[in-house]
Structures are given as structure tokens and as C-alpha cells.
Amino acid sequence: MKEKFIFIVNPKAGKNNNAVTFMDKIKAAIKAHKLDGEIYITRSVGDAKEYVKKRCESLEIPTRFYACGGDGTLNEVINGAVGCPLAYVGILPLGSGNDYIKSFNDVDFLDLTAQINGKPKPVDLVKIGDRYVANMCNIGFDASVAHNFTKFKTVPGVSGKSAYAISVFYTLVQKLSRPMHIILDDGTEIFDDMLLCSVSKGIYCGGQYKTAPRADVSDGFIDVCPIKKLSRIQFVNFIGYYKKGVHFDMPSLSKYVAYHKCKKATIKNANNIPVTYDGEPGFINGNVTFEVAEKAVSIIIPAPADETEKEVKKEAAEIF
After folding, report:
1. Hey, which residues does 127 pair with through a beta bridge?
2. What average pLDDT does range 109-115 have in this prediction?
3. Cα separation, 277 vs 254, whole angstroms
4. Closest Cα to residue 203, out of 192, 195, 194, 212?
5. pLDDT for 67-86, tens place per residue?
6. Which residues, 6 or more positions from 3, have their beta carbon under 8 angstroms from its beta carbon?
7. Disulfide check for 223: which of 144, 160, 163, 200 has CB 3.0–4.6 Å away?
């Protein structure tokens, strides 16, 4: 069946106008593969979601919506496409962090031929009220880091990873914890001063931190990782383990760190706690429930290298 390809470009994504400069490659790929394709350039925050949602109301053939930007662009495209069976979500990682794709091994998301030959895969999402998250919700310290990250990522000569590291140390001198009351669907209650809590489908955040090392995008669970208050001295040791994803395996951290797989988790009586939804900052108040939305959307997994090479040879044979 014929498919339509729509490339949704966030012109502000990444450093040095990554997404904008990539458009020439997109145009060339549309022409070379004779796609029924088009490019849409977003105009403001929230525009990608509204554009995809509107297009989904009148789809008649399978349509791939490629999020050309970072995790925030992906989040908007997914929130626009969720619930539409003819909509698939592709990912061209042109942002600063691009954390979600790090949960997929040995896949080249920047290879346009591999993208075009890729197949859809149903994946789970985190559902919070009427919004969805593909990769991760960070609550507390991690979210404060992301809030502060916006101050540093536009500094000339500072890469996305460097900006995040600077933000970590900037946030470290602020208040390190806040009370959280977390209730899991098996009845487990956690009520303590918490450094942070993550609710995940993906593994990474901040471009390099392996926050939820046991997460799986399609296992039917969310991964809830609460971490209790640490002293600044303890934090210095913790951050190295956190980056490598071994913070749950260290005996010295066992009374501070927990890891739960569940279907649902609720934070009770939140009081203006910072949160990020796929890196996009916000705050939570009152009772907020995070739950798994199983196989809520299908994403395009680029074709393996051997399949891509076969397709290129086939096209070359047709030309010559």
C-alpha cells in the first residue's frame, strides 16, 4: 500500500540549525525515492502536535510523520499521532540530547534510506492525564537540571552534553530535595525527602545519563526510580554511578535508591514540584498519576544496514 511521508522540522532544534541544514538531504531523499512526501516547518511550541493531530483527522492512507528535531519535537508529534491507526512516527534525531533513540541498539536513525525502508513497531508510552511521554518524566533534581539547561545550551561553543553537565553542577548548589509521597499500583508507598524520581519507558536522559537501565519501550510496564535525599558529598559519588546506570547495583546506595516496574504510580499532594516531559519543563501539583499506555503508537525503526544496501543496489540497477 502506498504511504505518505511528512517531515516535521523544528527549525530551532539542536546547535547550528541542525534541522534546517538537514532539509536539503530530506528533499533529495524524497526525490530519489519518488516519495509522496512533504516538509512542514514548525512555527512555535505546540505547533507540531496540533499540525499532526489535524492531519490525522483526515488520513486515508498510512502516513509517516517524521519528527525532525529533539525529544521535545518527538513528544509533540507522538501526542498528535496517538490514537490514529494510520499514523506512524519516525524520528530524525537533530536535537541537543536525542535520548529516546539511545534505547535502540545498532540502529542508524540519521540514515534516510534506512528510514524510508524501515518498518513500524508498536511501543508503549507513559500517560499522564491527557498527555503522553515517549522517553521519560523526570521529577525533582533531574527536572531542575533540565529547567536550568535552557540557560546554558545556547552559549556559543557549549555542546548539548556540556550544557547539561554545567546545569547539573549549577543545580547542585540549590536545594537538593523535596518531600514526595509516591504510591505504586501494588500498594507500595514511598514517603520521604527525595532527590528525584524518574518514570520511564526509555533508558537515558540528559544525553548521557543511564537513568533507567532496565527500561524497555514495549514491555508493558513503566519503570519508576525514586532516589532519596543525598548529601552533596554522596552526590559526587552518585552522579558517576548514575551516568553509567549502575546506581542500583551499588551497596553503598542501597538504602537511598529503588527501582520498580509497575503499571501505574501516583505522586500524592505534589506542591509545585519541577518535572520534565521528554525534556520539556513543567511543574506538578496535587495528585498526579503516571501509567503505562501499552502499544499506544507505532514508531518507524530504520532498516538494518544489509537491507538498506540491497535497496540502494536495486535502485541503482533500475537507473542503469
Report:
1. 132, 291
2. 96
3. 27
4. 212
5. 999 999 999 999 999 999 99
6. 36, 61, 62, 63, 64
7. 200
User: What string of DSSP letters covers the chain?
Assistant: ---EEEEEE-TT-SSTTHHHHHHHHHHHHHHHTT-EEEEEE--STTHHHHHHHHHHTT--S-EEEEEEESHHHHHHHHHHHTT-TTEEEEEEE-SS---GGGGSTT--TT-HHHHHT-EEEEEEEEEETTEEESSEEEEEHHHHHHHHHHHHTTSTT--HHHHHHHHHHHHHTS---EEEEEEETTS-EEEEEEEEEEEESSS-BTTTB-S-TT--TTSS-EEEEEEE---HHHHHHHHHHHHHT-TTS-GGGTTTB--EEESEEEEEEEEEEEEEETTEEEEEEEEEEEEEEEEEEEEEEPPPHHHHHHHHHHHHHHH-
CA distance 93 to 66: 10
Output 170 or 61, whichever has higher pLDDT: 61
Whether 120 and 300 have beta carbons less than 8 Å apart is answered as yes
* Residue 216: count of CB within 10 angstroms of its CB: 17
Take residue 220 and report the three cell numbers written for it. 508493558
Locate 275 and state its grid cell.
518535572
